[in-house]
Design a protein that fits this description.
The chain contains three helices and three strands, in the order ααββαβ. It is an alpha+beta fold. The chain has a three-stranded antiparallel sheet with strand order 1-2-3. The radius of gyration is 13 Å and the shape is globular.
Length: 100
Amino acid sequence: ATQVQQQEALAEMTILASDWAGGQQYGFFIVSGGPLAARVRDLCRLEAGGPPQLLMLDIPDGGAFYRGPVGHDALEECHMKKVLSDFEARTLERKQLGAK
């Protein structure tokens, strides 16, 4: 994703975080390049340097994570909302950080 796309996605995440009516609070971040991005991609078994991937990390739940859309869809507010809704409804497939 370009720097502009990342900034737009972060702005949408910020609005979503403040407006979310769900029962829990969430933190959002965007990582592009560098050691943190490489580590998250490795733990979630994503291709290094691959397309944007929307992820829900639930580290307190024994290192769980959930995958959302890939590519441009990962940066769209509607898809972020759907992942949050699906997470709260427990309809996402749970994956384990670091498991092969």
